[in-house]
Write a structure and sequence with these properties.
The chain is of the alpha+beta class and about 280 residues long. Helices cover about 30% and strands about 40% of the residues. The protein has two domains: about 110 residues, no CATH class; about 160 residues. It is built from six helices and ten strands. β8 and β9 form a beta hairpin. The longest helix has 19 residues. The two termini are about 35 Å apart.
């Protein structure tokens, strides 16, 4: 396969992850995940749907020493409805500074189901904060970056566990150029590790491999996806590692070296998204 085509397939699979077809997953609940879920709160004039944000914080110049927050707003995506979230964190000096501690809990209430979960820092992800000053001289905090989430989903299709990454930001916008105050905004988007594992399967299916080779590799992907969807992170990580081991063993044999390298890179990315050690 030409390297340019292989590169395009990798980019497509990683930028637009798609779950493996349901027959490959049997009766798992892998489709119950938060990928694409967006939580927003803030002033309606700034493209936010409204809601309420309460902040308690300590600023020293431009440094954000600590922050506590509670948010209620609106959710869109696979679980549209309303949400609440609260949490707290501490940050190093000299902004934008790395978070020392940060955690939060959230609940999404939707006609599609109820989601409850927690979010925590991860050493391999960037999460930063600091303090700004509005036109009236009022200090305000901001933070942005990635957190790992773990969620319990209760929907009509049954209960499911989902894990992955959330990209969350609290910032400020000014209502108008004449205003001396600014209003907080909250925006958060979820990316499910279950779907990230599915993107590995999408990549494999696009490589044009012999049926036996593809089936063996896809079985490991489906097993990892099903394990994570049922809340068994250890099994999912072991199954992804088995996929990597298989690709390494077949490199230059049933797989070309570029094909094996692509599968290994995608599987390692999925392991990182899932929080594998």
């Amino acid at each position: 396969m030409p390297r340019r085509l292989l590169t395009s397939l990798i980019a497509l699979a990683l930028s637009a992850p798609v779950l493996l077809p349901q027959p490959a997953l049997g009766s798992t609940t892998a489709t119950a995940n938060l990928s694409g879920e967006d939580l927003r709160a803030g002033p309606t004039y700034a493209g936010f749907p409204g809601g309420q944000i309460t902040l308690t914080f300590s600023c020293s110049g431009r440094s954000l020493q600590s922050v506590s927050f509670s948010v209620s707003g609106f959710a869109s995506g696979p679980y549209p409805g309303t949400f609440t979230e609260s949490g707290s964190g501490t940050f190093q000096p000299n902004p934008p500074a790395t978070a020392i501690t940060f955690s939060s809990t959230f609940t999404i209430n939707s006609p599609a189901g109820t989601v409850t979960g927690t979010k925590t820092l991860s050493p391999d992800l960037g999460f930063f904060g600091g303090c700004g000053v509005d036109a009236g001289g009022h200090p305000f905090p901001f933070f942005t970056g990635f957190l790992r989430y773990s969620a319990q989903i209760s929907a009509s299709g049954g209960a499911a566990t989902d894990e992955g990454l959330s990209n969350v930001t609290i910032a400020r916008v000014t209502p108008s150029g004449l205003s001396l105050t600014s209003d907080p905004t909250f925006d958060e988007t979820f990316s499910s590790a279950v779907e990230r594992i599915g993107s590995v399967g999408t990549l494999i299916m696009g490589l044009g491999l012999p049926q036996g080779t593809a089936t063996s590799l896809l079985a490991k992907v489906a097993a990892a996806q099903a394990s994570l969807a049922s809340g068994n992170l250890t099994a999912a990580c072991n199954q992804l590692q088995a996929l990597i081991n298989d690709a390494e063993a077949q490199s230059g044999k049933k797989l070309s070296v570029p094909q094996a390298d692509a599968i290994i890179a995608a599987a390692r990315g999925a392991m990182s998204a899932a929080g594998c050690p």
